[in-house]
Structure formats: C-alpha cells, structure tokens
C-alpha cells in the first residue's frame, strides 16, 4: 500500500557532475537509478554543460547538469539514496573538490530548510557556482512559487565564471527504457 498522500510529494532539484570515465553515460545511469526508486519521478532535465573545474584546478573538465524530481521521500532519505547511487557508480572520495566518476548534490526542496551535520538545505554553495546555476536556470519555471526562480537569476546576473560553463549537449534522458534498450 502506498503510505504517502499526494500532499506529501515535493519537488527537489539535484545537481549532477562527472569528470572521469564516460561522463555522459554515468550521468544518464545516475538519473536511471533515481527514477528506479518507487517514490521518485524525474520530471525535468537540464542540458549538459562542459565546465572548467572549480576549487581544485588540476583535473579534467566536468560535465554538469541538474534534474528536478518529484518525491515523497524525506530529505535525509533522498540524500542517502543519492550517496548510495554515487557508490554504486564507482565514486571514491580522495581529494576534496577533486576528480570524481559522479557527484550528486541536493540543491533545494520546496519549502524545506535543513541544517544538520549530514544535510544542509538549500545547498550552502549552490548560489556561488555557475556550474550549478546555469543548468538550474534551464529547468526552474518562472512561476516557481518558492522564489527559487528570482534568487537563482539574481545570483546568475552577478556571478563570475559563467564563461567556464559551456553548453555541450541536450539531455537524452527518455526514461529507463532508453538505457536498457527495451
Ligand atoms: N545539500 C547537500 N547535498 C549533498 N551533500 C550534502 C548536502 N548537505 C550536506 N551534505 C553532506 O556533504 C557530504 C560531502 O559531500 P560530497 O563528498 O559530495 O562533497 P563535495 O562534492 O566534495 O563538495 P560539495 O558539497 O561542495 O559539492 C555528504 O556526505 C553529505 O552528508
Ligand atoms: N566544474 C566543476 N567543478 C567542480 C565540481 C563540478 O561539479 N563542476 N564539483 C566539485 C565538488 O563539489 C568541485 N569543482
């Protein structure tokens, strides 16, 4: 039995990044893993951007994107699923801000502010990062009630480093069947 009523469902934004291996394939696999979960529906995907590394410079360019999901999961459960997906896809934590097969960051959940040792929402560095804001702007609707649209565009107007974020490809995500070939 589904224990969640539709009023428990909120929209969440998740940033994805990869700079090792087949970056696009890994990002599509990460989206498939999210969608596989019974309580998550991926509703929008940004374009894919190739981005210069920020923070730790001696590493390959990243591919970054953002997805919007609708979910009945609590924020902490969503985060632990995201960490599990990173591990499943081969992520190792070696250098802070360093190279990674895949990274999933929980950016924003409508109406939720969290500040615990495991989770901070909104993500504390999201408004400083062009590699997050540019793809996020692809998929946040202007009528977004929470004010995210306004905050994001205000930050985007002022932020430096947008030239390090280059459109690469449109997203080819068309549901899990697209990956399995079914
Ligand atoms: N909003 C959030 N999204 C993802 N992780 C978060 C968030 N808030 C707190 N964390 C915590 O941060 C820890 C480290 O995350 P991670 O290794 O992905 O950091 P990072 O990618 O190196 O740096 P950054 O967080 O700046 O992207 C996670 O284990 C998680 O508990
Ligand atoms: N361009 C880019 N740079 C980064 C990224 C990322 O996803 N893209 N992630 C980091 C770790 O949080 C550190 N630096």
From TrEMBL:
InterPro entries: Hppk, Hppk_sf. One of its GO terms (biological process) is tetrahydrofolate biosynthetic process. Keywords: ATP-binding, Folate biosynthesis, Kinase, Nucleotide-binding, Transferase. Pfam families: HPPK. Pathway: Cofactor biosynthesis; tetrahydrofolate biosynthesis; 2-amino-4-hydroxy-6-hydroxymethyl-7,8-dihydropteridine diphosphate from 7,8-dihydroneopterin triphosphate: step 4/4. Its EC number is 2.7.6.3. The keyword Transferase applies. Residues 96-107 form the 7,8-dihydro-6-hydroxymethylpterin-pyrophosphokinase domain. One of its GO terms (molecular function) is ATP binding. CDD domains: HPPK (cd00483). It catalyses: 6-hydroxymethyl-7,8-dihydropterin + ATP = (7,8-dihydropterin-6-yl)methyl diphosphate + AMP + H(+). PANTHER family: 2-AMINO-4-HYDROXY-6-HYDROXYMETHYLDIHYDROPTERIDINE PYROPHOSPHOKINASE (PTHR43071:SF1). This is 2-amino-4-hydroxy-6-hydroxymethyldihydropteridine diphosphokinase. It comes from Paenibacillus anaericanus. The lineage of its organism: Bacteria, Bacillati, Bacillota, Bacilli, Bacillales.
């Amino acid at each position: 039995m589904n224990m969640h009523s539709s009023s428990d469902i909120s929209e969440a934004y998740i940033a994805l990044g990869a700079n090792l291996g087949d970056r696009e394939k890994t990002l599509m696999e990460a989206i498939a893993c999210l969608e596989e979960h019974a309580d998550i529906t991926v509703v929008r995907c940004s374009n894919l951007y190739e981005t210069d590394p920020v923070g730790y410079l001696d590493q390959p360019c990243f591919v970054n994107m953002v997805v919007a999901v609708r979910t009945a999961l609590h924020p902490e459960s969503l985060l632990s699923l995201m960490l599990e997906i990173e591990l499943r896809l081969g992520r190792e934590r070696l250098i802070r801000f360093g190279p990674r097969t895949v990274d999933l960051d929980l950016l924003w959940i409508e109406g939720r502010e969290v500040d615990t040792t495991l989770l901070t929402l909104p993500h504390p560095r999201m408004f400083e990062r062009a590699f997050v804001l540019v793809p996020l702007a692809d998929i946040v609707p202007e009528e977004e009630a929470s004010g995210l649209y306004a905050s994001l565009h205000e930050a985007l107007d002022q932020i430096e480093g947008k030239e390090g974020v280059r459109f690469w490809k449109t997203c080819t995500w068309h549901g899990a069947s697209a990956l399995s070939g079914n």
